Amino acid sequence: xxxxxxxxxxxxxxxxxxxxATGWVxxxxxxxxxxxxxxxxxxxxxxxxxxxxxxxxxxxxxxAASLGVNYGTGPVRLGPPPAPGARLxxxxxxxxxxxxxxxxxxxxxxxxEVEGADEPACVLDALSRWLA
Length: 132
What we know:
Thiol Ester Dehydrase, Chain A, two-stranded parallel ribbon, 132 residues, six-stranded antiparallel sheet, 3 helices
């Protein structure tokens, strides 16, 4: 279920909230091959990190913002790269909301879980700016 914030004040008030988890996405041999072709990273080390951008809209929506921008990341910890056939999902917590010129910057701790695995594929602090 997507967390929807209809005002920037509601977004600020949600700091610390659990945003839940996305649906599962299966990593196919095609994904790994295409990712390797595009990046030269044949082990797909950063594939789980790249998938966070695909999954983020399942976690949060801020229709009150005129513009939402992926502003980068804070710390990133990589686990084992996902093998073809692995199923991943993103689980997230809104850890901080900071005022910036024209809006709010959020820090969302995203854990890319691998179904049946003890260790996540990656954990990162995703930074987004939501502008009024």
